[in-house]
Amino acid sequence: MGLMDFTLQVVIGLASSLGIRVNFLRKPRER
Length: 31
Known about the structure:
mainly alpha
């Protein structure tokens, strides 16, 4: 259970980082 939780946290962290990066790059592109 602990390992699953840890993996989920890492995945969420990576997804958040990628999502923020994509949003940042997409914002100026849409302009």
